[in-house]
Write a structure and sequence with these properties.
Elements (H helix, E strand, L loop, with lengths): L2 E5 L3 H13 L4 E3 L4 H11 L3 E4 L1 H4 L4 H11 L3 E3 L4 H6 L13 H9 L9 E3 L1
């Protein structure tokens, strides 16, 4: 069973994501509203996927998300207004070299390079 964590207080976005993730096989869903609660959950659960809603991102540095990804081994998706696009981005990881590090995606898809940095998806 896969575990997912949705961090943020935007209830409509969270409900939409919960529905899509449940149907995608993430049957254990946690939805803390702040990073302190999220850290407590990740340290005991180690989710397979972490999604951060925009309201949290605006008040926290990206470095904290990188640390969370590194500690849990889970990819982090930063969801923007287009939740469907965020869900489609569950494919290959991108590096933290930039918001759209296309060379990292191309290299990973071709199997010629591995991204060793924590993963962060920005959509």
């Amino acid at each position: 069973m896969q575990h997912a964590l949705i961090i943020g207080a935007e209830s409509k976005a969270r409900e939409t994501l919960e529905d899509h993730l449940w149907h995608a096989g993430y049957h254990t869903l946690f939805a803390p509203e702040d990073m302190a609660e999220a850290w407590a959950i990740t340290r005991s659960l180690h989710p397979d996927l972490i999604i951060v809603l925009p309201d949290v991102l605006s008040s926290r540095p990206t470095e904290e998300l990188c640390n969370m990804s590194e500690e849990t081994g889970a990819p982090i998706i930063v969801a923007t207004a287009d939740l469907d696009a965020a869900l489609r981005s569950l494919g290959p990881s991108v590096s933290l070299d930039g918001p759209f590090a296309l060379h990292a995606v191309a290299g990973r898809e071709a199997g010629s390079a591995k991204v060793s940095q924590p993963t962060l998806h920005a959509v």
